[in-house]
Amino acid sequence: xxxxxxxxxxxxxxxxxxxxxxxxxxxxxxxxxxxxxxxxxxxxxxxxxxxxxxxxxxxxxxxxxxxxxxxxxxxxxxxxxxxxxxxxxxxxxxxxxxxxxxxxxxxxxxxxxxxxxxxxxxxxxxxxxxxxxxxxxxxxxxxxxxxxxxxxxxxxxxxxxxxxxxxxxxxxxxxxxxxxxxxxxxxxxxxxxxxxxxxxxxxxxxxxxxxxxxxxxxxxx
Length: 221
Prior knowledge:
Mycothiol-dependent maleylpyruvate isomerase metal-binding domain-containing protein; 8 strands
């Protein structure tokens, strides 16, 4: 099935993952936002990066669809601006995503260093959201995400590694029955989707089983 046929269920799931992160963001004070997060970032840096990716994704979709909304995007100059900008970025992505069915299935949308087909756009944003949520190092973990969102996270990170020619020669298999042969396949890595996601995003091995020692891929950015 073309993933675009699941667009509206994907948008709904993006809304749920966004709301879960929103509940955390709204509680963060200026002091909290300066706390350490994953990959040598602060919580503020994680959230601003997520916001800017959302704006960029909305712009990339609108460019392809010929839609030209006049967005008001005040600069984030203070931690108090984060929650408004976060919600605004989500709204703009969802509005732009509603136009994706007007594009050919094989159209490519440039998003940073990667190219996305229309059906991959919303899963990409879901991935960015759940990984950012995990990267805040709050009480929430990716184990609490929807199982399909964990799969989106893994697929988004693998897509990036393949497209930037940094995929290691490994075979990844999950407890859920997924399998990916990267760079022609190689030593087996086995575990659940959530642990695979953590290894791909920041090199944490967790409960993964490795057929042989393997260097972690470049961290998710």
